[in-house]
Specification:
With 118 residues, this protein is mainly alpha-helical. It has 2 domains: 31 residues; 82 residues, Cytochrome c-like domain (Cytochrome Bc1 Complex, Chain D, domain 2), CATH 1.10.760. Helices cover 64% and strands 3% of the residues. It has a two-stranded antiparallel ribbon. β1 and β2 form a beta hairpin. α4 runs antiparallel to α6. The protein is globular, with a radius of gyration of 21 Å.
Length: 118
């Protein structure tokens, strides 16, 4: 009987923990996005210009790689990409290092700047 009680408590604890996890995710999804400022972003792109604003630029590391042009890309996509580089779910050494140095406001500002370019 004692093992049954322990099992019930264990299952109950897992269910409570899971519900907290899902509730937390739902609240995080409802959190308002940080509003980016394109003018502020223009002052924060010095590390980006060397690759992302040179037409047809290719880098030789880690192999011949075409650098994407991000001018005109939508801001939420740019923010999502920067967050993924920062947390390691996207991997490219240079982008990872740069993204980890940016605050959420910096990411929003840089994204606002690049999305304003055509």
């Amino acid at each position: 009987m004692k093992s049954r009680q322990l099992l019930d408590r264990g299952v109950g604890s897992v269910l409570v923990a899971a519900s907290c996890l899902f509730a937390g995710s739902a609240f995080a999804a409802d959190a308002p996005a940080i509003k980016g400022d394109a003018q502020a972003g223009a002052q924060k792109v010095s590390m980006c210009i060397g690759c992302h604003q040179i037409q047809g630029y290719k880098t030789a590391y880690p192999e011949l790689y075409h650098v994407p042009m991000i001018a005109g890309q939508n801001a939420p996509y740019i923010v999502a990409a920067l967050k993924e580089y920062a947390d390691g779910s996207r991997t490219f050494p240079t982008m990872g290092a740069i993204a980890r140095a940016l605050s959420p406001q910096d990411m929003a500002d840089v994204a606002a700047y690049y999305s304003s370019l055509k």
